[in-house]
Amino acid sequence: MTPPSRSPEGSARPGAGRRGEPPVIAVDGPAASGKGTVALGVARVLRFHYLDSGSLYRLVAYRALSQGALIEEEGGLTALATGLAASFEGERIVLDGRDVTLAIRTPEVGAAASRVAVFPGVRRALLVRQRAFRRPPGLVADGRDMGTVVFPDAVLKVYVTASAEERAARRHKQLIEKGNSVTIESLLRDIRERDARDMGRAEAPLKPAADAIVLDTTGISIEASIAFVLERYRQISGEARTET
User: Fold this and answer.
1) Which residue of 9, 10, 48, 101 shows the fewest CB atoms closer than 10 Å?
2) Rounded distance, CA 156 to CA 140, Å?
3) Pairing of strands 139-143, 49-52
4) What pLDDT does 91 receive?
5) Is 164 helix (H, G, I), strand (E, B) or coil?
6) In order along the chain (244 residues), what is the average pLDDT of each group of 10 residues?
């Protein structure tokens, strides 16, 4: 079954991209909406590069927490973001030569990352680093402002969402499987608070791009969601080849 979708503006057409640049598929959405799993699945099928932009903010938060830096001090956080010695090796994330893939995925780091991300200085410091991921044959970028700020010329923009209750249940399942003791009630509260921060921040607030397709994954399988995005991309790619 094809997942339902719509454009927030009703009839907006996805961006055409820059001629000669590798194509970008921008996948945005709130926490635990499934956007990361969808984006990674699409990247694997197309054999595109993959950017998990949220990991960059988690890295800044992790470094700040490990150094005892204040999460509310923009200047210090911006300096950490600017000098971040991180690399992505397949699905491994390395910071200062150490594998921190699992360390940055804790609830504590996730909550701190949301607070770090509100600062304009931090977002600007990470902007160039994110855009550097755009390489042939193409890129699938997952985040909260990929289609609105980082890659406004993306050939396809998808805003993945789901109800807060569905997202809390998904996150609960993930954390329980990893051995974390949490309640759905606390996760639901955290998700609603994070949504408010992400949507209300002055710099690059979370919202669908004007030409994005909204994909509500509530009750829809990951496989169906991935297939939907692939179908839309292939339609757009075919249109572009016809036009040229």
Assistant:
1) 10
2) 10
3) parallel
4) 80
5) helix
6) 42 51 96 93 96 95 92 93 89 92 91 91 94 96 96 98 95 86 92 91 91 95 97 87 55
DSSP string, 23-73: PEEEEE-STTSSHHHHHHHHHHHHT-EEEEHHHHHHHHHHHHHHHT--TT-
The answer to whether domain 1-48+137-244 and domain 54-135 are alike in fold is: yes
Quick one: pLDDT at residue 202? 84
What burial class does residue 223 get, using C-beta atoms within 10 Å of its C-beta: 0-12 exposed, 13-18 middle, 19+ buried?
exposed
- Quote the pLDDT of residue 44: 95
At residue 6, the pLDDT reads 44
Q: Is 218 helix (H, G, I), strand (E, B) or coil?
A: coil
β-pair partners for 7: none
Domain definitions of the chain by residue range: 1-48+137-244, 54-135
Strand order in the sheet with 86-89: 86-89, 92-95, 98-99
* Residue 33 to residue 39: CA distance in whole angstroms: 11
- Paired residues of 27 in beta bridges: 142, 158
Please compute, for residue 110, the number of CA atoms within 13 A of its CA located in the half-sphere on the CB side: 16
Q: Cα separation of 120 and 78, whole Å? A: 9
| DSSP 8-class letter at 150 | I
Q: Which fold has domain 54-135?
A: Rossmann fold (3.40.50)
